[in-house]
Amino acid sequence: TAGFMLKKTVVMVGMMGAGKTAVGRALAQLLRVPFLDSDQEIEAAANMTVPEIFARDGEPFFRARETEVISRLLGGCPCILSTGGGAFLSPVNQANISHSGVAVWLDADLELLWTRVRHRDTRPLLRTADPKKTLTDLYAARVPEYSKADLRVPCAPPVAIEKMAQRVADVL
Ligand code: S3P
């Protein structure tokens, strides 16, 4: 996409397993702009993984770092910024994102999300006795917040990551 000029940072929001990181990275390649990921930034700064941060310092500590990182990255050059699934729930993050970015909700349905997260052990929030129920409850609680994003891109029918990135580019 030659000549595409990104005016604002595109912030990928949505549930864990929606493909924010994979699609965000492909979108950045397509548009030839930098790609950043808030979870990766938090991990690099802490020199710990997200599960380690949750275990050692707790979720509130993680959320505080997440808000700092998102605010800092929004102050930089326009880029594609993928965020963790909980980031767009915070009113402060929502305000910061709407002020200097454009929020794109990757909207995947629960069954697709479950097939993607069920075998991974990287989500501390899903380390419960009944992770499918936890995911279902999180989904129900979060959809009203994700609906506040500027743009919504459905993940159904499913397509390859590059096509998903093209879908997002088409609505920007
Ligand atoms: C979280 C999602 C994770 C990560 C953390 C909390 C959430 O990111 O930020 O485990 O609250 O949904 P992904 O959406 O990239 O899995």
From TrEMBL:
Class in the EC hierarchy, top level: transferase
Coiled-coil ranges per UniProt: none
Biological process per Gene Ontology, one example term: amino acid biosynthetic process
GO cellular component, one term: cytosol
Binding site for substrate: 39, 63, 85, 142
Pathway field: Metabolic intermediate biosynthesis; chorismate biosynthesis; chorismate from D-erythrose 4-phosphate and phosphoenolpyruvate: step 5/7
EC code(s) of this entry: 2.7.1.71
Cofactor requirements of the protein: Mg(2+)
Binding annotation for ATP: 17-22, 123
UniProt-listed CDD domains: SK (cd00464)
Membrane-spanning residues: none
GO MF annotation terms: ATP binding; magnesium ion binding; shikimate kinase activity
Chief localization: cytoplasm
Key words, A-Z: Amino-acid biosynthesis, Aromatic amino acid biosynthesis, ATP-binding, Cytoplasm, Kinase, Magnesium, Metal-binding, Nucleotide-binding, Transferase
Family: Belongs to the shikimate kinase family.
Matching NCBIfam families: PRK13946.1
Protein name: Shikimate kinase
Gene: aroK_2
